[in-house]
From TrEMBL:
Transmembrane segments: none annotated. S-adenosyl-L-methionine-dependent protein-lysine N-methyltransferase that methylates elongation factor 1-alpha. Residues 63-84 are annotated as: Disordered. InterPro entries: Efm4/METTL10, Methyltranfer_dom, SAM-dependent_MTases_sf. This is Protein-lysine N-methyltransferase LOC106758081. Residues 64-74 have a biased composition (Polar residues). One of its GO terms (molecular function) is protein-lysine N-methyltransferase activity. It is found in: Cytoplasm. It comes from Vigna radiata var. radiata (Mung bean). The gene is LOC106758081. The keyword rRNA-binding does not apply. It comes from the Eukaryota. One of its GO terms (biological process) is methylation. GO terms for cellular component: cytoplasm. The keyword S-adenosyl-L-methionine applies.
Length: 342
């Protein structure tokens, strides 16, 4: 999603508080609007029977309560919005649709693509690291926690990567897919629940010579996609879902949905600023246990032996991000982790 940008803060701020505060403390001007949260994909009406008019009214009230104004008249000397109100706002589709309406106008008038969530450097690292990982897997080598994924280009890379179907969930402006195309991937699809985000991503791809990238309107939490993909990318989407007031429930919905989008033998790559590598691994293990328990209950009712194979297995993570020390622990502001779909 768009309209927010990250900035670094002192390491004595908790990761989640920093993500919320940073996501809202620097809304930028007309000539430099941010499309920083381009991977975010959340929807307000889950668990609700409100109609569109009511959701728009709720969004307007949330914006008012948070003391936010439209991007065009925001300046840094205004009071910063309340973190809790902002985290609630991120669940409203009307908020993001309005933000992308501004971004589309800015693109059409000035040609600006906006910023990349987590920054261009992180996006480039994610793309090159993912390429190296997929090449290794294509050659039958699956890294473990000790082995580092090494990006060594070869003439076979493009041929190997051409067979990978790629899905970027919550694609926003679609720039991550453009970067993956530069790395040699060719079967590329981006989805976002905001139609305006999809319009912006398609416009940018056409302008930049990547008209082969497909963009679709789709919500990851209740996806209409029936295809399975060998590589699924998430850059900030799980973060945004976690900031919603119903975040814990929605994260469970996320894993149920994503597990159906990643093909067996495929890879899920998550980039997060709210969760560490270990926290993401723990969340996947919790999902695995939940799925195994459900399968056991179903099979027990059929008097058959249950399946005990976990859906996801941790493969590797990016080791090149800068780290910091706080409270005796070493961490990073960004984590990129890959999981293999069994």
């Amino acid at each position: 999603m768009a309209g927010l940008r990250l900035q670094q803060e002192d390491s004595d701020v908790s990761q989640q508080s920093r993500a919320v505060a940073l996501a809202t403390s620097d809304l930028v001007s007309d000539d430099d609007r941010s499309v920083a949260a381009d991977s975010w994909s959340i929807k307000s009406e889950y668990g609700s029977t409100l109609d569109d008019d009511q959701r728009h009214a709720d969004a307007a009230e949330a914006l008012s309560n948070a003391n936010l104004r439209p991007n065009s008249d925001y300046s840094s000397d205004k009071d910063e919005p309340d973190s809790e109100a902002v985290s609630s706002m991120l669940g409203f589709q009307s908020y993001w649709d309005a933000a992308y309406a501004d971004e589309l106008t800015n693109f059409r008038e000035h040609g600006h693509a906006g910023e990349v969530w987590f920054g261009v450097d992180v996006m480039e690292v994610v793309a090159s690291w993912t390429k190296a990982l997929c090449v290794e897997i294509s050659q039958g080598r699956i890294p473990n926690d000790v082995d580092a994924v090494k990006a060594e280009a070869s003439e076979l890379d493009d041929k190997l990567l051409s067979s990978w179907s790629v899905l970027d969930i919550g694609t926003g402006n679609g720039l991550l897919l453009q970067e993956l195309a530069k790395q040699g991937f060719s079967d590329l699809t981006g989805t976002d629940y905001s139609e305006r985000a999809v319009n912006l991503a398609q416009s940018l791809a056409d302008r930049d010579g990547f008209s082969n990238i497909k963009f679709l309107v789709d919500d990851v939490l209740e996806t209409k996609l029936e295809q399975e993909f060998q590589l699924v990318m998430d850059k900030g989407t799980l973060d945004a879902i976690g900031l919603h007031p119903d975040g814990p429930v929605k994260r469970m919905m996320y894993w149920d949905s994503v597990s159906k989008l990643v093909a067996p033998g495929g890879i899920l790559v998550i980039t997060s600023c709210n969760s560490t590598k270990d926290e993401l691994i723990q969340e996947v293990e919790s999902f695995n246990q939940r799925k195994i328990s459900t399968a056991q209950e179903i099979e027990a009712g059929k008097d058959e032996e249950s399946c005990r194979e976990p859906p996801f297995q941790y493969v590797s993570h990016v080791r090149t991000y800068p780290t910091f020390m706080f409270g005796g622990s070493v961490g990073s502001r960004v984590a990129t982790v890959a999981f293999l779909r069994k």
